[in-house]
Here is the input.
Amino acid sequence: MKCRRCKKQAVVALPGHNTAFCAECYLLFFKRQVEKAIKDHKLLTQKDKILVAISGGKDSLALAWQLANLGYDVTGLHIDLAIPGSSEQARELTTSFCKNFNIELKILEIKNEGLAIPEVKKRIRRPICSVCGQIKRYFFNKFALDHGFTVLATGHNLDDEVARLFSNTLRWDTAHLSDQGPLLPAENGFVRKVKPLYRLTEFETANLCYLVGIEYGFAPCPYSTGASFTYYKRLLEELEFKQPGRKLQFYEGFLNRGQKGFKLLEQKQGQELTPCPECGYPTSEELCGICRIKKVMEKI
Amino acid sequence: MKVFIEPENKEIKLTGKTKTVLGLLNKLNLRPTQALVIRNGQLLTPDRRLYPDDNIIIRPVISRG
Here is the structure.
Protein backbone atom coordinates (compact mmCIF):
# COMPACT_ATOMS: atom_id res chain seq x y z
CA MET A 1 0.00 0.00 0.00
CA LYS A 2 1.16 3.52 -0.77
CA CYS A 3 0.55 6.65 1.26
CA ARG A 4 -2.48 8.49 -0.10
CA ARG A 5 -0.78 11.89 0.20
CA CYS A 6 2.87 11.38 -0.76
CA LYS A 7 2.90 7.87 -2.34
CA LYS A 8 5.69 6.58 -0.07
CA GLN A 9 5.37 3.13 1.55
CA ALA A 10 2.35 3.28 3.88
CA VAL A 11 2.69 2.16 7.52
CA VAL A 12 -0.94 2.55 8.63
CA ALA A 13 -3.98 1.37 6.65
CA LEU A 14 -7.34 2.85 7.64
CA PRO A 15 -10.22 0.93 6.02
CA GLY A 16 -12.78 3.21 7.74
CA HIS A 17 -11.40 6.16 5.76
CA ASN A 18 -10.55 4.02 2.71
CA THR A 19 -6.95 5.21 2.90
CA ALA A 20 -3.39 4.57 4.09
CA PHE A 21 -0.56 6.85 5.24
CA CYS A 22 3.20 6.92 5.74
CA ALA A 23 4.39 7.91 9.23
CA GLU A 24 4.72 11.62 8.50
CA CYS A 25 1.36 11.97 6.75
CA TYR A 26 -0.33 9.84 9.43
CA LEU A 27 0.63 12.41 12.09
CA LEU A 28 -0.93 15.10 9.93
CA PHE A 29 -4.11 13.02 9.52
CA PHE A 30 -4.34 12.55 13.30
CA LYS A 31 -3.81 16.24 14.01
CA ARG A 32 -6.49 17.22 11.49
CA GLN A 33 -9.04 14.83 13.02
CA VAL A 34 -8.47 16.44 16.44
CA GLU A 35 -8.64 19.95 14.96
CA LYS A 36 -11.91 19.07 13.17
CA ALA A 37 -13.46 17.76 16.41
CA ILE A 38 -12.40 20.92 18.27
CA LYS A 39 -13.69 23.22 15.50
CA ASP A 40 -16.99 21.42 14.77
CA HIS A 41 -18.06 21.36 18.42
CA LYS A 42 -16.22 24.46 19.73
CA LEU A 43 -14.46 22.27 22.32
CA LEU A 44 -11.45 24.44 23.17
CA THR A 45 -9.83 27.82 22.63
CA GLN A 46 -6.19 28.80 22.99
CA LYS A 47 -7.21 30.81 26.10
CA ASP A 48 -8.47 27.71 27.94
CA LYS A 49 -6.61 26.33 30.93
CA ILE A 50 -6.97 22.62 30.17
CA LEU A 51 -6.76 19.77 32.66
CA VAL A 52 -6.15 16.47 30.84
CA ALA A 53 -7.13 13.29 32.67
CA ILE A 54 -4.12 10.98 32.14
CA SER A 55 -4.45 7.31 33.03
CA GLY A 56 -1.17 6.17 31.46
CA GLY A 57 -3.01 4.38 28.64
CA LYS A 58 -2.55 5.20 24.96
CA ASP A 59 -5.60 7.43 24.55
CA SER A 60 -4.97 9.90 27.36
CA LEU A 61 -1.26 10.11 26.51
CA ALA A 62 -2.02 10.65 22.81
CA LEU A 63 -4.51 13.38 23.75
CA ALA A 64 -2.10 15.21 26.07
CA TRP A 65 0.64 15.01 23.42
CA GLN A 66 -1.59 16.25 20.59
CA LEU A 67 -3.08 19.16 22.57
CA ALA A 68 0.37 20.25 23.79
CA ASN A 69 1.62 19.93 20.22
CA LEU A 70 -1.20 22.19 19.01
CA GLY A 71 -0.05 24.84 21.49
CA TYR A 72 -2.81 24.52 24.10
CA ASP A 73 -2.18 25.24 27.80
CA VAL A 74 -2.20 21.67 29.14
CA THR A 75 -1.72 20.21 32.63
CA GLY A 76 -2.09 16.48 33.29
CA LEU A 77 -3.86 14.96 36.27
CA HIS A 78 -3.17 11.31 37.09
CA ILE A 79 -5.25 9.53 39.72
CA ASP A 80 -3.31 6.75 41.44
CA LEU A 81 -6.01 4.13 42.07
CA ALA A 82 -3.80 1.92 44.31
CA ILE A 83 -4.58 -1.25 42.31
CA PRO A 84 -1.76 -3.79 42.84
CA GLY A 85 -0.01 -4.87 39.65
CA SER A 86 -1.48 -1.99 37.63
CA SER A 87 -1.43 1.45 39.29
CA GLU A 88 2.31 1.54 39.92
CA GLN A 89 3.10 0.99 36.23
CA ALA A 90 0.45 3.48 35.11
CA ARG A 91 1.88 6.15 37.41
CA GLU A 92 5.45 5.51 36.23
CA LEU A 93 4.47 5.66 32.56
CA THR A 94 2.52 8.89 33.09
CA THR A 95 5.33 10.52 35.04
CA SER A 96 7.95 9.58 32.49
CA PHE A 97 5.73 10.70 29.55
CA CYS A 98 5.12 14.13 31.11
CA LYS A 99 8.81 14.55 31.84
CA ASN A 100 9.81 13.54 28.29
CA PHE A 101 7.29 15.81 26.60
CA ASN A 102 7.53 18.67 29.10
CA ILE A 103 3.91 18.55 30.26
CA GLU A 104 3.06 19.66 33.81
CA LEU A 105 1.65 16.79 35.88
CA LYS A 106 -0.37 16.60 39.10
CA ILE A 107 -0.94 13.31 40.90
CA LEU A 108 -3.88 12.58 43.19
CA GLU A 109 -3.60 9.48 45.40
CA ILE A 110 -7.06 8.01 45.86
CA LYS A 111 -6.03 6.14 49.02
CA ASN A 112 -5.61 9.54 50.72
CA GLU A 113 -9.34 10.05 50.15
CA GLY A 114 -10.08 6.71 51.86
CA LEU A 115 -11.09 5.22 48.49
CA ALA A 116 -8.26 2.84 47.45
CA ILE A 117 -9.99 0.79 44.74
CA PRO A 118 -9.13 -2.69 46.17
CA GLU A 119 -10.76 -1.66 49.47
CA VAL A 120 -13.78 -0.19 47.71
CA LYS A 121 -14.12 -3.41 45.68
CA LYS A 122 -14.29 -5.46 48.88
CA ARG A 123 -17.07 -3.37 50.39
CA ILE A 124 -19.27 -2.09 47.58
CA ARG A 125 -21.50 -4.60 45.82
CA ARG A 126 -21.85 -2.80 42.47
CA PRO A 127 -19.50 -3.72 39.56
CA ILE A 128 -16.12 -2.20 40.39
CA CYS A 129 -15.58 -0.69 36.90
CA SER A 130 -18.70 1.43 37.34
CA VAL A 131 -17.72 2.53 40.87
CA CYS A 132 -14.13 3.27 39.81
CA GLY A 133 -15.40 5.38 36.87
CA GLN A 134 -17.71 7.29 39.20
CA ILE A 135 -14.85 8.00 41.65
CA LYS A 136 -12.53 9.17 38.85
CA ARG A 137 -15.17 11.47 37.31
CA TYR A 138 -15.84 13.03 40.72
CA PHE A 139 -12.19 13.78 41.52
CA PHE A 140 -11.25 14.97 38.02
CA ASN A 141 -14.18 17.40 38.16
CA LYS A 142 -13.38 18.51 41.72
CA PHE A 143 -9.68 19.02 40.97
CA ALA A 144 -10.47 21.09 37.86
CA LEU A 145 -12.91 23.34 39.75
CA ASP A 146 -10.71 23.68 42.85
CA HIS A 147 -7.63 24.64 40.79
CA GLY A 148 -9.18 27.09 38.33
CA PHE A 149 -9.11 24.99 35.13
CA THR A 150 -11.65 26.10 32.52
CA VAL A 151 -12.07 22.66 30.95
CA LEU A 152 -11.44 18.97 31.59
CA ALA A 153 -10.29 16.95 28.55
CA THR A 154 -10.51 13.16 28.49
CA GLY A 155 -9.08 10.65 26.03
CA HIS A 156 -12.36 8.93 25.14
CA ASN A 157 -11.99 7.66 21.59
CA LEU A 158 -14.50 6.64 18.90
CA ASP A 159 -14.60 3.03 20.14
CA ASP A 160 -15.38 4.16 23.70
CA GLU A 161 -18.06 6.54 22.51
CA VAL A 162 -19.73 4.13 20.08
CA ALA A 163 -19.72 1.32 22.68
CA ARG A 164 -21.32 3.71 25.17
CA LEU A 165 -23.90 4.89 22.62
CA PHE A 166 -24.70 1.26 21.75
CA SER A 167 -25.08 0.39 25.45
CA ASN A 168 -27.24 3.46 26.15
CA THR A 169 -29.41 2.63 23.13
CA LEU A 170 -29.85 -1.02 24.15
CA ARG A 171 -31.23 0.26 27.47
CA TRP A 172 -32.98 3.32 25.90
CA ASP A 173 -31.33 5.30 28.67
CA THR A 174 -32.70 8.73 27.81
CA ALA A 175 -30.76 10.51 30.58
CA HIS A 176 -27.41 9.31 29.24
CA LEU A 177 -28.43 9.63 25.58
CA SER A 178 -29.38 13.27 26.22
CA ASP A 179 -25.88 14.31 27.25
CA GLN A 180 -23.62 11.91 25.38
CA GLY A 181 -21.27 13.77 23.08
CA PRO A 182 -17.84 15.37 22.77
CA LEU A 183 -18.90 18.50 24.69
CA LEU A 184 -20.60 18.79 28.07
CA PRO A 185 -20.95 22.50 28.86
CA ALA A 186 -20.12 23.80 32.35
CA GLU A 187 -23.09 23.80 34.71
CA ASN A 188 -23.50 24.45 38.41
CA GLY A 189 -20.93 22.18 40.05
CA PHE A 190 -19.65 20.69 36.78
CA VAL A 191 -16.62 21.93 34.84
CA ARG A 192 -16.87 21.88 31.01
CA LYS A 193 -15.83 18.45 29.70
CA VAL A 194 -14.51 17.69 26.21
CA LYS A 195 -13.48 14.60 24.23
CA PRO A 196 -11.25 15.82 21.38
CA LEU A 197 -10.36 12.24 20.27
CA TYR A 198 -13.96 11.22 19.58
CA ARG A 199 -13.32 10.88 15.82
CA LEU A 200 -10.30 8.58 16.30
CA THR A 201 -10.34 4.84 17.02
CA GLU A 202 -8.21 2.90 19.48
CA PHE A 203 -6.24 1.57 16.53
CA GLU A 204 -5.52 5.14 15.46
CA THR A 205 -4.36 6.31 18.91
CA ALA A 206 -2.18 3.17 19.27
CA ASN A 207 -0.54 3.96 15.91
CA LEU A 208 0.04 7.57 16.94
CA CYS A 209 1.73 6.50 20.19
CA TYR A 210 3.94 4.07 18.33
CA LEU A 211 5.02 6.58 15.69
CA VAL A 212 5.64 9.41 18.18
CA GLY A 213 7.50 7.12 20.60
CA ILE A 214 5.01 7.33 23.46
CA GLU A 215 5.39 4.36 25.78
CA TYR A 216 2.03 3.37 27.23
CA GLY A 217 0.51 0.69 29.41
CA PHE A 218 -1.24 -1.99 27.38
CA ALA A 219 -1.77 -4.56 30.13
CA PRO A 220 -5.48 -4.54 31.00
CA CYS A 221 -6.69 -3.50 34.44
CA PRO A 222 -6.83 -6.73 36.51
CA TYR A 223 -10.39 -5.91 37.60
CA SER A 224 -11.83 -5.33 34.13
CA THR A 225 -12.28 -8.96 33.00
CA GLY A 226 -15.73 -9.50 31.55
CA ALA A 227 -16.63 -5.80 31.42
CA SER A 228 -19.62 -5.41 29.08
CA PHE A 229 -17.98 -2.52 27.18
CA THR A 230 -15.18 -4.82 26.04
CA TYR A 231 -17.81 -7.19 24.63
CA TYR A 232 -19.64 -4.36 22.84
CA LYS A 233 -16.36 -3.12 21.39
CA ARG A 234 -15.71 -6.56 19.90
CA LEU A 235 -19.20 -6.69 18.38
CA LEU A 236 -18.78 -3.22 16.89
CA GLU A 237 -15.31 -4.03 15.58
CA GLU A 238 -16.87 -6.90 13.64
CA LEU A 239 -19.50 -4.53 12.23
CA GLU A 240 -16.75 -2.08 11.26
CA PHE A 241 -14.85 -4.85 9.50
CA LYS A 242 -17.89 -5.73 7.38
CA GLN A 243 -18.91 -2.10 6.88
CA PRO A 244 -15.82 0.16 7.16
CA GLY A 245 -16.64 3.65 8.43
CA ARG A 246 -19.88 2.57 10.09
CA LYS A 247 -18.78 3.48 13.64
CA LEU A 248 -18.02 7.11 12.79
CA GLN A 249 -21.24 7.42 10.72
CA PHE A 250 -23.31 5.96 13.58
CA TYR A 251 -21.81 8.38 16.11
CA GLU A 252 -21.85 11.51 13.95
CA GLY A 253 -25.42 10.63 12.88
CA PHE A 254 -26.45 10.47 16.52
CA LEU A 255 -24.83 13.85 17.26
CA ASN A 256 -26.43 15.51 14.23
CA ARG A 257 -29.87 13.90 14.21
CA GLY A 258 -30.50 11.91 17.40
CA GLN A 259 -29.20 13.68 20.46
CA LYS A 260 -31.46 16.75 20.34
CA GLY A 261 -34.60 14.63 20.71
CA PHE A 262 -33.28 12.96 23.84
CA LYS A 263 -32.21 16.32 25.25
CA LEU A 264 -35.75 17.72 24.84
CA LEU A 265 -37.25 14.60 26.41
CA GLU A 266 -34.86 14.84 29.36
CA GLN A 267 -35.69 18.55 29.87
CA LYS A 268 -39.35 17.52 30.29
CA GLN A 269 -38.96 14.45 32.48
CA GLY A 270 -35.37 14.43 33.77
CA GLN A 271 -34.46 14.55 37.43
CA GLU A 272 -33.32 17.86 38.88
CA LEU A 273 -29.84 18.00 40.38
CA THR A 274 -29.14 19.70 43.70
CA PRO A 275 -25.82 20.18 45.53
CA CYS A 276 -24.81 17.33 47.86
CA PRO A 277 -25.16 18.69 51.44
CA GLU A 278 -21.77 17.21 52.40
CA CYS A 279 -19.52 18.11 49.44
CA GLY A 280 -21.57 20.28 47.07
CA TYR A 281 -21.32 17.87 44.07
CA PRO A 282 -24.52 17.89 41.97
CA THR A 283 -26.75 14.91 42.69
CA SER A 284 -30.33 13.71 42.22
CA GLU A 285 -30.19 11.83 45.54
CA GLU A 286 -30.05 13.02 49.14
CA LEU A 287 -26.27 12.45 49.22
CA CYS A 288 -23.99 12.20 46.15
CA GLY A 289 -22.65 8.79 45.08
CA ILE A 290 -19.14 9.44 46.40
CA CYS A 291 -20.30 10.59 49.85
CA ARG A 292 -22.48 7.45 50.02
CA ILE A 293 -19.46 5.26 49.18
CA LYS A 294 -17.40 7.13 51.80
CA LYS A 295 -20.08 6.43 54.44
CA VAL A 296 -19.94 2.70 53.64
CA MET A 297 -16.13 2.74 53.83
CA GLU A 298 -16.17 4.58 57.18
CA LYS A 299 -18.60 2.07 58.75
CA ILE A 300 -16.16 -0.86 58.65
CA MET B 1 8.88 -17.00 11.61
CA LYS B 2 8.75 -15.99 15.30
CA VAL B 3 5.69 -14.11 16.52
CA PHE B 4 5.57 -12.38 19.92
CA ILE B 5 2.07 -11.65 21.14
CA GLU B 6 1.65 -8.85 23.69
CA PRO B 7 0.70 -8.16 26.45
CA GLU B 8 1.34 -11.77 27.57
CA ASN B 9 4.63 -11.88 25.56
CA LYS B 10 3.61 -15.27 24.29
CA GLU B 11 5.98 -16.53 21.59
CA ILE B 12 4.79 -18.76 18.77
CA LYS B 13 6.69 -20.16 15.80
CA LEU B 14 4.96 -20.33 12.45
CA THR B 15 6.09 -22.40 9.53
CA GLY B 16 4.48 -22.88 6.15
CA LYS B 17 2.04 -20.78 4.28
CA THR B 18 1.75 -17.48 6.19
CA LYS B 19 2.90 -15.07 3.48
CA THR B 20 1.33 -11.75 4.40
CA VAL B 21 0.42 -9.69 7.47
CA LEU B 22 -3.26 -10.27 6.68
CA GLY B 23 -2.68 -14.03 6.59
CA LEU B 24 -0.93 -13.85 9.97
CA LEU B 25 -3.74 -11.79 11.51
CA ASN B 26 -6.32 -14.24 10.16
CA LYS B 27 -4.38 -17.10 11.73
CA LEU B 28 -4.44 -15.26 15.07
CA ASN B 29 -8.16 -14.52 14.70
CA LEU B 30 -7.57 -10.75 14.67
CA ARG B 31 -9.05 -8.12 12.36
CA PRO B 32 -6.54 -5.70 10.76
CA THR B 33 -7.58 -2.81 13.02
CA GLN B 34 -7.34 -4.83 16.22
CA ALA B 35 -3.54 -4.98 16.49
CA LEU B 36 -0.33 -3.25 15.51
CA VAL B 37 2.00 -5.51 13.55
CA ILE B 38 5.67 -4.59 13.99
CA ARG B 39 8.82 -5.84 12.25
CA ASN B 40 12.26 -4.38 13.02
CA GLY B 41 10.61 -1.35 14.61
CA GLN B 42 8.43 -0.67 11.54
CA LEU B 43 4.64 -0.81 11.41
CA LEU B 44 3.27 -3.09 8.70
CA THR B 45 0.04 -2.72 6.70
CA PRO B 46 -2.01 -5.91 6.03
CA ASP B 47 -0.73 -6.31 2.45
CA ARG B 48 2.97 -6.50 3.46
CA ARG B 49 4.90 -9.67 2.65
CA LEU B 50 6.34 -11.78 5.50
CA TYR B 51 9.47 -13.96 5.37
CA PRO B 52 10.57 -17.11 7.23
CA ASP B 53 13.33 -15.28 9.20
CA ASP B 54 11.02 -12.49 10.41
CA ASN B 55 10.52 -11.60 14.08
CA ILE B 56 7.06 -10.09 14.38
CA ILE B 57 5.43 -8.32 17.33
CA ILE B 58 1.64 -8.32 17.61
CA ARG B 59 0.31 -5.58 19.88
CA PRO B 60 -3.50 -5.71 20.30
CA VAL B 61 -5.03 -2.26 20.65
CA ILE B 62 -8.30 -2.84 22.50
CA SER B 63 -8.20 -1.26 25.95
CA ARG B 64 -9.84 -2.76 29.00
CA GLY B 65 -10.32 -0.49 31.96
